Amino acid sequence: MQKSLNIDPEKCTGCLQCELACSLEHEGSFNPAKSRIKVIEFGSQGRMVPYTCTQCADAWCVKACPVNAIVINHATGAKEVLEDVCVGCKVCTIACPFGTINYSQDTGKVVKCDLCGGDPKCVTACPTEAITYVNADTTGYDRMRASAAIADAGAQA
Amino acid sequence: MNLKIKLYASLTPYLPKGTPKNEAEIEIPKGATVQSVLDGFNMPEGLYKLVLVNGVFITPEDRASRIFVENDVFAVWPPVAGG
Amino acid sequence: MAWTEKILRVNLTKGTCESEPLNMDWAAKYLGQRGLATKYLVEEIDPKVDPLSPDNKLIFATGPLTGTCASTSARYSVITKGALTGAIACSNSGGYFGAELKMAGWDMIIFEGKSSSPVYLSIVNDVAELRSAEHLWGRSVWEVEPALKAESGDPQTRVCSIGVAGETGVLFACIVNDLHRAAGRSGVGTVMGSKNLKAIAVRGTLGVTVKDPKAFMEATAAGKKVLADNAVTGEGLPAFGTQILMNIINESGALPSKNSSDVQFDGATKIGAEGMAEIRASDGKANLVTKQACFGCTIACGRISQIDKDHFTVVNKPEYWGASGGLEYEAAWALGAATQIDDIECLTYVNFLCNEQGYDPISFGSTVAAAMEMFEDGDLTAKDTGGIELKFGSAEALTQIAELTGKNEGFGAEIGLGSKRLCEKYGRPELSMTSKGQEFPAYDPRAIQGMGLGYATSNRGGCHLRGYTVASEILGIPEKTDPLETEGKAGLVKAFQDATAAVDSSGLCLFTTFAWSLDDIAPQVDAACDGDWTPERLAETGERIWNMERQFNLAAGFTGKDDTLPQRLLKEAAKTGPAEGKIAGLDVMLPEYYELRGWTADGIPSNQTLERLGV
């Protein structure tokens, strides 16, 4: 079963434990600057929104890469960067409309979320379940359930 | 007799349905104790912690013997803190 | 490893920024943040220095756990000689700024001297430079942060700054980071302004490491589980914030109201957590929008609020219609209970102003309450206040005064002196609710006796955080004690003060101690830092820090006679509630406190104590 990261901004408190976990996993130190998942703050609205690569099925980054350095992990569905193939041309960073693949000056390669091979560390780290890892086909289920409850309350009134 | 009762935070839903805000006046039998009134709300154990009668904390050991009198004000909170 | 082992020393007079190695002997004895920075301060400045002179120093210090994945790893402190008090000032803040400083590779920044013109400090990893802040001087915290992010070209830059209050010498000006978190007390912002230092902008991409990553991950995971399973830190604080205390403290008859004339306030029900959650009839929304955490924090006690657009305070002022940092308990107490104002939208607006222009709502509210009493008694007239009818309960008056104080204008300049100087100026010194010149907050010592001892002996003046015995006396954490009793309080206060000093030096947040003891904290520190850190060593470190701070204050001119409370609390009994008829029993608790501390009967640390602790 392929799973996706499911983001619920309503639950995000802005603690950045996801960024800490991601950077620890991929870089070996606590360094949110290197995290592949970022929490975006919309302060005047009181909203915090974690965001990262959504692992497009038909990915711009894969198509754009001139050396085929981005491959699909068929178990997780993640698009992974082969570091020894990547030449750091950064064309994928231009192609991705979401901004979730970025260049790293330190390594000369691009970095992106790879779902940690199927055990995403951001999910484990999140204290409020703002990020969960669920069946890719039914990420909307909880919201559908909540909406059904509202519709039902109206129908019963 | 009447008892003024205030249930706060996660305890508020245990007040009678339709109670505005956190306060209600309830009818209790003469001789009712702090523990008996608490039990009457069917709150799970551990859910309440700060049990105050007229602003004074009633220790767990005293709750079964502290009898309510006329004009007592009963206020209860779950475990909370601040600074 | 945990510590970056680098300090940035900034000489504002010369305009230089230099790196120097952290004194690791001192780190072993004082840990970090509060303890370590205080050690640097006491070694480097004359205790008698004028806080606003270029010879005072201003230190921003992280702890060894700041920036790690430990829960609540956001904390940093600002240490200096306080402008408000003339005592040691040590003000703690959260948000994201401290972690960013650590990520940039710095344990601490020490500012010396005074710049000849307004400057700000820019730090990008190891590149630190002072830049002109002429274009920022006169602008608010809320304008400076976006301006500096734009200037740096990196939207992930974090900023702390002073507002106009700090620039113009409001004595309780604070330093605000991330728009609504603050190093709030004792006028640390005033000291920053006196140096012509407007802001610090920092970006850090180097990361933080620890001594033993495996042990650290285990210890911090265990710590996080304790926090999550605990009803206070796992449910109560995130759901209700600190504002849950308003009704508890009022019910307990310990809510100082009307400048501590009363110990309860009828309006309390409107200005606490319940008031923040209530749906407004006017716009169908609640004051509370959501909760927010600081960096690394798995508790999330922060409140984000939005004011009713049509409320008189913000009508036609769209700049205040957005969500921003909402009321904490202490601010709501000072702005509302102390002044008898029950309009939560007004209190939220004033709280916004405190963040926008950088001044301490606790000192501000308490000073306004004292001014209100003087006004009602006729010591202050409308002529003095520039026409403001400064009466208890007046939301309009509070609003006008808050707007003036942020800019140190009109009667706001008088308020900006703080209540001690203000009351002395108008001939009513006894109306200042302060210890060592700092306004104490939201707990009346007549009803919570231990807090009276805490306020009187706090090294930074009236403060609830130095030794928060409310946790035990009212909330039953870790064990319940009787708030109306003085017996045993000396030992309780000392234990809280020492443990708190250790926590304040670690980079972690004090609120973890509603669930954690030093037994939970020590393994995390031990896994991160060189050396063996046990709970006992942390407690001893705290006691060492406390005595070091005490020595500084004594050298600065304070004596045991300053370990006192206003006459109102010592002589006038509480009028209502469980403490009716009681006064603050300081005279009973203080001698035992001195003895337990190993101090003389005059409150001076004995040589034996200083030697034992290695101070």
Structural commentary:
The complex is a heterotrimer of chains A (157), B (83) and C (615). By secondary structure, chain A is an alpha+beta fold. Helices cover 27% and strands 20% of the residues of chain A. Chain B has 83 residues and is mainly beta. Chain B has one domain: Beta-grasp domain (Ubiquitin-like (UB roll), Roll), CATH 3.10.20. Chain B has a five-stranded mixed sheet, with no helix packed on it. Chain C is α+β, with helices and mostly antiparallel strands and 615 residues long. Chain C has three domains: 6-203, Aldehyde Ferredoxin Oxidoreductase,  A, domain 1 (4-Layer Sandwich); 257-432, Aldehyde Ferredoxin Oxidoreductase Protein, subunit A, domain 2; 439-613, Aldehyde Ferredoxin Oxidoreductase Protein, subunit A, domain 3. In chain C, 39% of the residues lie in helices and 13% in strands.
* Oligomeric state, counting identical vs distinct chains: heterotrimer
Task: Kindly report the CATH topology of the largest domain in chain C.
Answer: Aldehyde Ferredoxin Oxidoreductase,  A, domain 1
Number of helices of chain C: 25
Please list the strands of the largest sheet of chain C in the order they lie side by side.
2-1-6-3-4-5
The CATH fourth-level homologous superfamily of the largest domain in chain C? Aldehyde ferredoxin oxidoreductase, N-terminal domain
Main pleated sheet of chain A: 2 strands, antiparallel
Question: Given the helix and strand composition of chain C, which structural class is it?
Answer: alpha+beta
| Rg of chain A, nearest Å | 17 Å
- Helical content of chain A stands at 25-40%
CATH class of the largest domain in chain C: Alpha Beta
Strand content of chain C: 5-15%
The low-confidence runs of chain A, each spanning 5 or more residues with pLDDT under 50, are none
Radius of gyration of chain C: 22 Å
Tally of individual domains of chain C: 3
